[in-house]
Amino acid sequence: MVKISLDNQDCIEQHREAYQVLGRVLEDLASGKAIYTIGRGGKSKVLSRASNRNTVARKYYTKLTDLCDNYPCLSPEHIHDVVSKVKKYEVSLNKKMVKRAKRILATIYSYEKFSKGMSPQYKYGVLSWVANPSGWGAWEFLRRLNVRSCVYCNAETIFSLLLTNELPGGGITPKYDSKTHKRSALDHFYNHSKYPFLGLTLSNLVPACTRCNTNVKGARELNHTKHIYPYAESFNDGVKFAIAYKPGKRIVDLEESDLHIAFVPRMESKIYQKSLESVAFFHLSKVYNQLHKIDALTVLKRIEAFPQSYREFLAEKYPGIKGMVLDYVCRGSSLNPSHILSHNLSKLTIDIEKQFGVADKAC
Ligand SMILES: [Zn+2]
User: Fold this and answer.
1) What dihedral angle (degrees, nearest 10) is formed by the CA atoms of 61, 63, 69, 72?
2) Alpha-carbon distance 35 to 28, whole Å?
3) Can you give the residue ranges of every domain in the chain?
4) Residue ranges with CB less than 5 Å from ion ligand 1
5) What is the pLDDT of residues 279-293, one digit of tens each?
């Protein structure tokens, strides 16, 4: 639940170029035209039959086109409004028909195709998919976001890894190949099954570790009114880690079992309640207390061993050791809040430093 930004990555432009044609497919569905897709063996098959009657599905598609003309690029500012309007509208429709419409929409707004670096083509009522020549797809999106730590837990590494010697650079990205392009998961903030039209919406895709995405969240739903929405908010603003340890023990003598890691609300923040709900949703208290006490303990002991005076000594004696490198030498992670998205356990380290050390002075 660390804030991600879609700005300055050129992702929106690239995505619009690749997927804007899907807006026409949705319009045609709404107007009752037959839509075909390419099946196995290259044969065309019916995706949606022509319908002149004002069916439930057509009403549903029409509502969707009224709300947004380009779902893949739906902005973080509008996504919740669209979701709540669609949700309300669905209540008045026949459930079976909506389910059928959603199956068709899942084929159109295909996250699977985006994952494979494929873009849609739509001609004469036939929707087909081809490899995007620029290499644009989920792998490239994740690479450009430059997120290196799970947005939900800040404890696991996020990666987009290329298993070839041809490294991305100079604006050229090798075409997607499943054998060489490996990456972490992108979680659908709003579940793909319930909102298939958001299947490849960038503002709905959150870089997440397997534990948060699959093991913990699974099919459960997040909700922006209750939980932190990472394209707008950060739990760093709403809660802080607080370490408690066995009274009477000196920090140098502490062991893992003497420690407890708590999440304390920043009561002055408007989003402290949401932050706490998100922490509970992803079971972060259990995650940190069962898996990361050793990391918290290490930071505590480093604070004892390398106080501010030692940092100053190092910086003076070895001018090359500064900034983030100095943070790593003395604390084991970055102490810069703007680095939380790219360094595992950075929030934990910063908050412990603030509780026991001098992060506010050092940074
Ligand atoms: Zn995670």
Assistant:
1) -70
2) 8
3) 11-217, 235-362
4) 150, 152-153, 156, 209, 212
5) 999 999 999 999 999
